[in-house]
Write a structure and sequence with these properties.
The complex is a heterodimer of chains A (409) and B (98). Chain A has helices at 18-26, 52-55, 65-71, 82-97, 125-140, 152-159, 175-180, 192-200, 206-211, 214-221, 223-232, 262-282, 315-329, 358-376, and strands spanning 10-15, 35-37, 49-50, 76-78, 103-107, 110-114, 144-149, 167-169, 248-259, 285-296, 301-312, 336-348, 394-396, 399-401. With 409 residues, chain A is of the alpha+beta class. In chain A, helix 4 runs antiparallel to helix 5, helix 10 crosses helix 11 and helix 12 (262-282) runs antiparallel to helix 13 (315-329). Chain B has a 6-stranded antiparallel β-barrel with strand order 1-2-3-4-5-6. Classes of the chains: A alpha+beta (409), B mainly beta (98).
Chain lengths: 409, 98
């Protein structure tokens, strides 16, 4: 079938409270109970995922664990295990790929499927969704919600409307009506600030936004306004991409106790940088801008970012920038509780020809390190400074088990 | 990965998970390329596995760690782990209630 003549049909699949759902799936004592993944009840830190039973008690993602315990004393608190969630995520991938080869995995628990060419094999998209849901529940215990529509946006919005275990199919003839009555915050790109601006202008629904002239929305909201106006009018031509270049890759952790020990802080930062660099190389990506985030014991936060001369996936090069940023930022004589490293301006890697062999030497070294890690685990080769963490964290071959294991990837 | 459906949950108060990671002895059944723990000995006591909830594999370089979520005959939830690097079983996690 010619590309332009085939029916465009996108399915968005979102796992319901993924981490909590995995824990409930593998331990039937947890089913029907409020489950909170993020840390132990008395531990400092925040809720990463709350099961629907916990959400009914008012627990939300990002809420301090201590507050969550007060709100829901009977909840079960679990530190979480990212390796387990990753394994379940891989099982879900295998299932999706049996239904169509055109799958875009946006995260472990979230994917777009282009089912335009394969839906006829299953009769209807809703039947297809039911089959995927049944198979996923049987194999992993995780419940899924589905949105089906003519574009990624419609599919994504639809999957979020009827959670958990919902299946929403918005047919092309109903798309306009579906969008018209929808609250404006359902549109991707409408955050708290944009919503406030729109509410000030008495714009509450997508239909009201769509009725405005495009230039007016652009003037109001800048560059984002044009995209929002298009989405409000149901214009979304984004294809399902098999390889997605992430906008940002970040790794963060909290220390079990606030610390002022420079060696421990820099060791932690270098470890997080190594994890980012490995992820970049795994996916043949490189990044140009490096960001550093520090959370202090007095709950204040500081963040700064700076670009490298050229995009890189070399841990040592990225850490050089992290160290520079740290030197610029570490003026406050307060202990640190939380650290984070991020890279943005991520792009497909292209090896640039250079006059000098520095970058090529680094490439060769990195590929040797990656090979060793592939064979013997991530901890097989580590920068010496990160060994500071040995006295603070338990480790396995995969890496250190940080303060928030649910996020240790 | 296998998963068995059914059985309504019972009410437990103060359920808590604890990481153990101690070597244990396990009687295992191997069939058609699959391994399945049947009994394990921990702290001098033998536990019979009453229910098998599921398993997952954690890749550690070229090695694999096989995690099994099981229910022992005393109704405790236990996570067992078999590491093919040293062919050793460990009790990874237990779920304590009360």
């Amino acid at each position: 079938m010619a590309e332009n003549s085939r029916t465009r049909m996108i399915m968005h699949i979102d796992a319901d409270a993924f981490f909590a759902s995995v824990e409930q799936g593998f331990n039937r004592q947890l089913r029907g109970r409020p489950v909170i993944v993020g840390g132990e009840a008395g531990q400092r830190g925040v809720v990463h995922t709350a099961s629907y039973e916990a959400r009914a008690c008012g627990i939300r993602t990002g809420m301090p664990l201590i507050r969550a315990k007060k709100l829901c004393p009977r909840a079960v608190f679990i530190k979480g295990d990212f390796a387990h969630y990753r394994a379940v995520g891989e099982s879900l991938r295998e299932i999706y790929l049996r239904y169509t080869p055109r799958v875009e995995f946006t995260s472990l628990d979230d994917a777009y499927l282009d089912i335009g060419d394969s839906v006829h094999l299953f009769g209807s998209p809703v039947y297809m969704a039911r089959e995927i849901r049944r198979e996923a529940e049987e194999k992993t215990g995780v419940s899924l919600s589905f949105g089906i529509g003519g574009s990624k946006m419609i599919a994504r919005i639809a999957s979020g409307l009827d959670k958990p275990r919902g299946i929403n199919h918005i047919t092309p003839e109903h798309e306009k009506a579906f969008l018209r009555e929808l609250a404006v915050e359902h549109l991707p790109g409408v955050g708290r600030r944009v919503k406030e601006k729109l509410v000030d202008l008495h714009i509450f629904t997508v239909g009201q936004l769509a009725a405005l002239p495009r230039l007016a929305v652009e003037q109001m909201l800048g560059k984002n306004g044009r995209t929002l106006w298009k989405l409000a009018n149901g214009i979304d031509e984004r294809e399902v991409e098999r390889k997605v270049v992430p906008r940002q890759i970040s790794r963060e952790t909290s220390f079990p106790r606030d610390t002022g020990d420079e060696k421990a802080i820099l060791g932690g930062l270098q470890y997080l940088t190594e994890r980012i660099a490995r992820r970049l190389r795994e996916q043949s990506l490189s990044a140009r801008t490096v960001g550093l985030k520090l959370g202090y014991a007095d709950f204040s936060r500081a963040a700064r970012a700076k670009s490298l001369e050229r995009a890189s996936s070399d841990g040592a090069e990225i850490f050089g920038m992290v160290r520079y940023l740290y030197g610029q930022m570490r003026l406050k004589r307060v202990h640190i509780r939380h650290i984070g490293v991020s890279v943005t301006q991520v792009r497909d890697k292209s090896v640039q020809e250079t006059l000098f062999d520095g970058p090529r030497r680094a490439e060769a070294l990195n590929s040797a390190v990656d090979e060793l890690r592939e064979r013997f685990g991530f901890m097989a080769v580590m920068p010496a400074e990160t060994l500071q963490l040995k006295s603070r964290y338990r480790n396995d071959a995969h890496g250190y088990i940080l303060h928030n294991p649910a996020l240790t990837r | 990965m296998r998963y068995l459906i059914g059985v309504q949950t019972s009410t437990y108060i103060n359920m808590k998970f604890e990481d153990i990671y101690e070597p244990i002895e396990v009687i295992t059944h191997f069939q058609e390329g699959r391994l399945r723990p049947l009994r394990f000995k921990w702290n001098g006591r033998v536990y019979k596995i009453r229910q098998w909830n599921g398993f997952w594999i954690n890749r550690q370089g070229s090695n694999r760690q096989y995690h099994f979520s099981v229910q022992a005959d005393n109704s405790d939830f236990v996570e067992l782990m078999f590491d093919d690097a040293d062919l050793q079983w460990q009790i990874a996690r237990v779920c304590l209630d009360g």
